[in-house]
Amino acid sequence: MEITEILDPSFVLCGLKANDAEDVIRKLGNLLYKKGKVKKSFVEATIAREKEMPTGLPTGNINAAIPHADMEHVNKPSLAIGILNKPIPFGIMINPEESIEVSIVFLLALNTPQDQIEMLQKVALVLQNSSILKELKQSKNSIQVVKVLSKWQIDQVVKEVKNNLKIN
Is it true that domain 3-167 has CATH number 3.20.20.80? Predict the structure, then answer.
């Protein structure tokens, strides 16, 4: 499963205004709920999980978070992305007592353990690429966000093919 397979441009909000992490999760989660991608319980389950196990990741100049809920709250695999108009605090994944200012939020809604692991790994790769994060942060609309992620996916495939050719 690829990021762009579960990302519809209508699930991307650029310049998102939010008061706090809970507000971001509500706004993005409601997009998924309105399209039937998640159950009514998804938003509250994601907020509760975020309070217990925060997902903020220090990624350099542009920090991100990857909130998600358990699979029973998901109807169909999907992803919503919020590019915030100003950073807001999220608890840090590796140190829940502390918080970081987050600018990009990837709200994951996945319904199998394999998909959840695979997608978390792919999002983690995106988050390790500072130039991609900068492009995402500078995106003015959802189509630009999808294009940035599509180009990144193609680059990943090309890299993988080149590595395989060197091995063989």
Answer: no
